[in-house]
Amino acid sequence: MAEESASRARWACTVCGRRDVEFAPSGRCVSCEGALDVPTVGETGSLRQIGAVATLVGLSLRSVRHYEDAGLVLPAARTPGGFRLYDEQAIERLRLIMQMKPLGFTLEEMRLLIDARQRLADGGLSDEEVDELQGRVAMFAAAAAEKCAQLREQLAIAEAFSATLQAEAAHFAD
Hints:
Elements: H1 2-10, H2 30-35, E1 48-49, H3 50-57, H4 61-69, E2 77-78, E3 84-86, H5 88-100, H6 107-122, H7 127-173
Antiparallel strand pairs: 1-3, 2-3
Helix pairs in contact: 6-7
């Protein structure tokens, strides 16, 4: 009995932080586990587990977790076992991130664009806020166009180099 209470003291509920309670396998205390709003089967129809989302978007599980840790995408819910469940909004955010990543946008820039788009979609903004957010989106559009132009230049250089190497390889093969 003393061993049981000693082992309990080492753990803290991931929700409330209590240590002197029974724990569920999820790491939450039994009380917090019972209070968890777990989606029903009908509600989870559009929710996907992290593995399915990662495959769908073309990311690793680690990358999805990284973007979650960075606050760019959040699971809509969790299963009773603690598995992340993502909705279509989270999947669309990950797709946006996948489009921004090859253009060299930072996590903070991604956050700014995601926030601006979300706030515009949610509505209820003053005209000034709408103008400011539309300006931010336009700034990102211009930056993306510039980065695409830079990538086209780099690609042209790489293709010329590849053609030169292929010609040399063909010449030496003769």
